[in-house]
Amino acid sequence: MSSVLQPATADQNPPAAKKYRPVSSHLAIAPPVSVVIPAMNEAENLPYVFKTLPDWIHEVVLVDGNSTDNTVEVARELWPDVKVVEQRGKGKGDALNTGFQACTGDIIVMVDADGSADGNEIVSYVSALVSGADFAKGSRFANGGGTDDMTFIRKLGNRILCGVVNRKFGARYTDLCYGYNAFWRHCLDKIDLDCTGFEVETLMNIRVVKAGLRVQEIPSHEYLRIHGASNLRAVRDGFRVLGVILGERSNRRALRRRPHHSPLLDTVRGKVS
Predict the structure, then answer these.
(1) Which of 81, 150, 212, 273 might form a disulfide with 262, Cβ 3.0–4.6 angstroms?
(2) How do residues 87-128 score in pLDDT, each as one tens digit?
(3) 11 class by beta-carbon count within 10 Å (0-12 exposed, 13-18 middle, 19+ buried)
(4) 107/173 Cα distance (integer angstroms)
(5) In whole numbers, what is the pLDDT of the chain averaged over residues?
(6) Cα(211)–Cα(185) distance, rounded to whole angstroms?
(7) Which residues form the signal peptide (predicted)?
């Protein structure tokens, strides 16, 4: 796995520079980045999603959940090289697993198709990964993050469930149920995502801690869904998330044997000890 971090300057033209993708005026990376977007009947929202995606990413993988509108056609018009794959199964967990398997990049970013995520934030996720993190976890409640799309009940539920995960598994998360994350491809071999629904993000967050992967929280702002209605149901999906938490067994002896830094949660503004 290569995680090369180099300055990108206009007057720097060594032969090796061609190996790097300019990300910003101060950053260039070697690893290719794949963006996975699970979508079902999101044709109206895709223009807003694709508009913010950076042009330096390696590939976009759209996972179509048997859409009955022109989601696929719109995606191909907006991003001609988009890789479209048909979802296996029915839930978000199935969609993400399908997309992950289709990726060819070393870094994988997962983004929702409803227009609530800002693709310009991808640079922060990728910067965290090439700087040493295994898993860059978006947080709406870290300093600098925010949300326009959560009711009081959902915020309360997320906070309670997040607290349970932190206590049970030794994590230090500020957000639990958020779908904007990025990670090195090798992480998939260690977390074994075997759930089908919206609870997949919670399962990922638990298993990266159990696997001793280095996690960095990225402040992220969640915007309102632009068109259509969400399939999320606070009470139903809250119980499914709770079921995942209770079903996961934390091996406390194994956690204690790990190096002190392994379950550490960092923030982009510094390390949390």
Answers:
(1) 212
(2) 988 889 999 999 999 999 999 999 999 999 999 999 999 999
(3) exposed
(4) 22
(5) 84
(6) 14
(7) none
Do residues 63 and 85 lie in contact, with contact meaning Cβ atoms separated by under 8 Å? yes
Q: In what order do the strands lie in the sheet with 215-219?
A: 83-86, 59-64, 33-39, 107-110, 181-184, 135-139, 215-219, 265-267, 270-271
What is the C-alpha to C-alpha distance for residues 260 and 125, in angstroms, rounded to an integer?
A: 24
Between CA 62 and CA 161 the distance in angstroms is 30
Residue type present at position 184:
W
CB 20 within 8 A of CB 8: yes
The span from the CA of 33 to the CA of 124, in Å, is 13
Burial grade of 203 (CB within 10 A; 0-12, 13-18, 19 or more):
buried
